[in-house]
Each structure stands twice: as structure tokens, then as C-alpha cells.
Amino acid sequence: IAHVSETQHRTADAEPSRTVDERRGIAALEAWVARIAALTRPDRVVWCDGTRAESDRLTKQLVAEGKLIRLNPEWRPNSFLARSDPDDVARVESRTFICTTRQEDAGPTNNWVAPDAMRAELDGVFAGSMRGRTMYVVPFSMGPLGGRLSQLGVQVTDSAYAVLSMGVMTRMGSRVLDLIEAGEPWVATVHSVGAPLAPGERDVAWPCNPTKYIVQFPETREVWSYGSGYGGNALLAKKCFALRIASAMGREEGWLAEHMLLIKLTDPRGRSYHIAAAFPSACGKTNLAMLRPSVPGWRVETLGDDIAWLRPGEDGRLWGINPEAGFFGVAPGTGESTNATAVETLWGNTIFTNVALRDDGDVWWEGLTDTPPAHLVDWRGEDWTPSSGRPAAHPNSRFTVAAAQCPQMADDWEAPDGVPIDAILFGGRRATNVPLVVEATDWRHGVYIGATISSEKTAASEGTVGELRRDPFAMLPFCGYNMADHWAHWLAIGDALRFDRAPRMFQVNWFRKGADGEFLWPGFGENARVLEWIAGRVAGEAGAVESIIGRLPVVDEFDVDGLDLPDDALEQLFAVDVESWRQEADLTEEFFSGFGSRLPAALATELAALRYRLAAA
Ligand code: GTP
Ligand code: SPV
Ligand code: MN
């Protein structure tokens, strides 16, 4: 670890931020809260304690205000439906900013504005933005309280929906204040829906503002979010803190904050493996995290479904935690046949957002059951029938539920020191080219694979669904610093690990399609077959064949027992087409050139080595 920090301190800004140091202790927290209140002018300030009585009070109040619908407790106890404004349904990457002193520290993949200029702009935007509303103070811990890899934060927000969600997604409440009182530092996050109320003005069901700002100040470890109430825009512990701010913290301190699920895989002999996997938004993390293997004798247990913090340990292994305490998962496509674990997790105590409402007071979304109910109220609150010709649930509709409710949480999911990682997977949606699974030859090759991931765009953020874009480490929207420095940091982390104890790295792709445009691989529970091969590689028991892009399974040895695949599906799933990979290499060169001299030499070398292998092929 020492090695990593030294390298970084040479390049990082010499001046430590004064604001971070000043934010210690309860008095500093109170002063900060008072300053935000003086700027945003709420009618009242409420400090949240994280108790069940508090969340009951808030849900009652939101139901009375028409902002939540209580679901029929017979089917779904203590559960609620929220319908967002139709223009506030996903993360807004075009309005997400990384504000570092120097533009090159934010890098070419982030929107950048100078901190002083952004602060001046935000002062105007937030002035009076909470008028007529309550400002809640939400103290939270990312990771188990007091854990070795854990970090504290405080969110102030004028959205009670955000408070409830933060209570599910984090360890929230008074116990965090004790740690702050003891002098633990905390990340400061400010959230306003940007819809002040005039005296006597009636509120709407989902207040928000057409102008949005999702602003990170990594140098002072602050987040300012304005105008949106939805997901990662509003639950600031999640993408804003646990990825954008935390990735910048990790770079300074020698650890990693990644867009990764975390699972424990156990083989029929009882040997366990911990696996982290980075897939872009809506590309299958929640599904893999909750997998029920189709292969007899194998077991998957869940540690996390979206974010992992990883740190080299004194033993030379990479250790990881899930900093969250809940799931904010994609609803559509979640059903008995795809993710029965999630369906069971959602039995109650769940907030659903933008799914459809059944006539019996329960919820529904595309993929929950094969046959839709004859009548629903859709996510916009309009009547819906199967012949309506539009989805009943928004494609980015989600559930918010405590991790503890998942029936297959691993016993070590809250281990204060985390768990040792045996394998790291990178994936994405690729209709062509990328095989079902391929193993990197070493850490550096693995970093190259992570850095060059591309994926077809999903509904998790604004933009055109299906468009292929680079999403390095699945962190394109979430890296709080220069993406090329992120790759250099990954290389440095590799150096801090013992070479024979570093996780093995793999690329996976559940989404390859045949000539008929259909998925070649059944996915979901059958992905256990890929995990089986990965475990076999870690244990040194499964064979592999070298290819130009890495190590592939031996097709005849790959476990497809009991699986009914079309004749040449396996060949197609593992096919490596030299001409397409030449084109892929050209595109990678173009992509890399966007990072100029900041591109780590090791990655240029990896690309050159790939070209050499392609030339020889
Ligand atoms: P974020 O929460 O946005 O970060 O996404 P995520 O990566 O957790 O995505 P999630 O697991 O919710 O998957 C979203 C979509 O991928 C759903 O429509 C799933 O049905 C689909 N999906 C997941 N796994 C598979 C698979 O193995 N095969 C196929 N074909 N689709 C899958
Ligand atoms: C994602 O988009 O990757 C999510 C949902 O996990 S959000 O929390 O809104 O970012
Ligand atoms: Mn995500």
C-alpha cells in the first residue's frame, strides 16, 4: 500500500484541502448544517435517527401527501410505490460534473467546471431552494460501522423519499453521529429537488426541476445535487459518494472504489471463492449477485450488487467490501425464472419506483410474470392493458430493499475487514466479438481488458439505448478523476499485491447473439457454468487454450451437461474472429489516443502485443 501512496503523492496536489480537515467533530457538522440551511432557507431542519419509528412517520406523511402509494399489505407489507416526474427517471450524465482545480485531473471522460466557478453558480442555484420544505440531516456509514474499509457521510436533503431510501441503502442514523463526535472524517453531500414552495402553495407528487446539477468536488470531498429526486442523482451515498468521491479518495489512499457486484461462490467440495464483477449499468450485476446455479452442488451467496471497495491487505491479497446496505435494483426482467432470489427479497419493506400498480394493490413490471394482468395503472398513473402498446413499468423502474432481506446473503457480507477476492470479472453487452468468457494472461492484461470494455447503452441513463460505447471498468459515468489515471492506479494496485495472490481476471459476455439476432447463451442461472470454469482456473484444475485475446475454455470440457444448446452455439460463443478483432484494436487505438500522454505505457504495450498476435494469426 505504501508503494501506491508514494507514487500518488508525487502527482497529487501538494495542498491538502482545508475544508476536509475542518469537517471533524459534531460542532463542525452543526456549523456546516447551519451554513447549508442559511443558503437554502428550509422551513425546518430535522436530524434523522434511523429508527423504524422515524421511517414509519415519513411513509405515513408521504402517503398522506400523495407522494407514495401504500401497497396492499396482504401481498406486500410495509411497501410503497412512488411515481416520478416523467422527465426525472434516470441518472443525467450530461449534467454530472467533476470539479477539480485542474481540468486534466477530471480527464476527458468527465464534464469539468473549475471549482470556484461551479461554487459561485451553485450558490445562486441553491439560494432559497428549500423554501417551504423540511431539510433532513442524514448521517450514514458506507460499510459496517467502524469497519476498516468503511467511510462516513452526511446528506442533507429536502426529499423525504431520499431519506427513506438512504435509510435502506446505508447504515443510517444516530450511531453515525457517535463516530463523527469521536473525530471520524465525513463526506459532505447536499441534495435539493430544486422546487421551493411559496407560502400556501400545493406540492406536486414528485417535485423536481428541469435544470439539474450533479456536482462532485473530489478535492474537498463534497457532493452538491440539484433538481432531481431519482436514484443515483438523489441517493448521494451511492454513485456520487461511493464511486465518484470514493474513487478519488482511493487513489490518494491506495484503494479502489468500483462499480462491481460481490459474491461468494462455493463448489461441490465446499471450497469458497469470492468474486467481484464490473458490468455497466443494467448489464446484469444484480442478477449475477443473486444467482441460483443451474449446476448441481454449486452455491452462490450475495455480498453486494452494485459497488465494491477494494484494498490490498498486508497478506498481499486484495480485500473487498460492499459499502452499501441495500439494493436499488432494476425491476423489469426480474422474475421467478430469471432472478427468483430478488423476487423473494421483495416480499415486503420495499419502495418501488415507476413500476405498474395492479388492481389488487400489488405491483407488476415486464418480466415479473409471463402473462401481464388484464388491467394495470402504468408508471405514469394511466390506465394500461396488454394491448396498450407501451411498457407498463418504466425500463429503469427500480426497487429499494434492505440487503438483509435477501435470502442468500453470505455470512461474511458485513465482515469489518471485508473478504479476500479470488477473481475479478469484466463484462458488458456485446452482440458480437466478445466470447462468453476469456481469462486474462496476467494482471496487466486484465487491466487492459477492463480499460477497453465497451457495451451497448441501456435505459439506466439518458441517451440512445443500444448504442455501443466504451465503458472502461464500467466506470465511465462514475470515475471521480482522470480515467487514464484510474488505469494507472489499477496497475499500481497490482504491484501492491503478491503476484501469486492477486485475483485472476476474466472478461465475460452473456449477450452474444447468433445470426438470427437471438442470444446464444441462456444466461441467468446458467451463468453458473461460467463461474464453474472460473473457479476451476483459480483452483488450478480447469484447462484452457491460448487465443489472441486470452485464455479460453476447452470447448469439449466446458460444462453444458443438461443444457439444450443449438448445435454450434458453443463454437459461436467462443469464436474469436481475427478480422473483427483487428477492427476492435483500431478502435481501441483511437480510444486510447483521447488520453494523450496520460495513458499508462503498460496499456500501450498491451495493445501492441495484441496487434502482434493479430498479425501472426
Ligand atoms: P445497475 O443497477 O444499473 O448498475 O445494473 P445491474 O448491472 O445490476 O443490472 P441488472 O442485474 O439489474 O440487469 C439488468 C438487465 O439485464 C435486466 O433486463 C436483466 O434481465 C438483464 N440480464 C441480466 N443477466 C442476464 C443474462 O445472463 N442474460 C441476459 N440475456 N440478460 C440478462
Ligand atoms: C446505475 O445506473 O448504475 C445504477 C442506478 O445502479 S443509479 O443508482 O441510479 O445510478
Ligand atoms: Mn449501478
Write the layout of secondary structure elements.
Blueprint: H1 2-11, H2 18-22, H3 25-40, E1 44-47, H4 52-64, E2 69-70, E3 80-82, E4 96-98, H5 103-106, E5 111-112, H6 115-126, E6 134-142, E7 151-157, H7 160-169, E8 171-172, H8 174-181, E9 186-192, E10 213-217, E11 222-226, H9 231-234, H10 237-253, E12 256-258, E13 260-266, E14 272-278, H11 285-289, E15 299-304, E16 308-312, E17 318-321, E18 326-330, H12 336-345, E19 351-353, E20 356-358, E21 363-364, E22 376-377, E23 383-384, E24 398-402, E25 419-420, E26 423-427, E27 437-439, H13 443-451, E28 454-456, E29 468-470, H14 483-496, E30 504-508, H15 528-539, E31 545-547, E32 550-552, H16 569-574, H17 578-593, H18 601-616
Parallel strand pairs: 1-6, 3-19, 4-5, 4-10, 7-9, 9-11, 14-26, 26-30
Antiparallel strand pairs: 2-3, 6-7, 6-8, 10-11, 12-16, 13-14, 13-15, 16-17, 17-25, 18-24, 19-24, 20-21, 20-22, 22-23, 27-30, 28-29, 31-32
Helix pairs in contact: 4-7, 13-14, 13-18, 17-18
Fold and architecture overview:
The chain has 617 residues and is an alpha+beta fold. The protein is built from 18 helices and 32 strands. Strands 1, 4, 5, 6, 7, 8, 9, 10 and 11 form a 9-stranded mixed β-sheet that branches. Strands 15-13-14-26-30-27 form a 6-stranded mixed β-sheet, sandwiched between helices. A hairpin with a 5-residue loop joins strand 16 (308-312) and strand 17. The radius of gyration is 24 Å and the shape is globular. The structure holds guanosine-5'-triphosphate, sulfopyruvate (SPV) and manganese (II) ion. The site of sulfopyruvate has 9 residues, from helix 9 and helix 10.
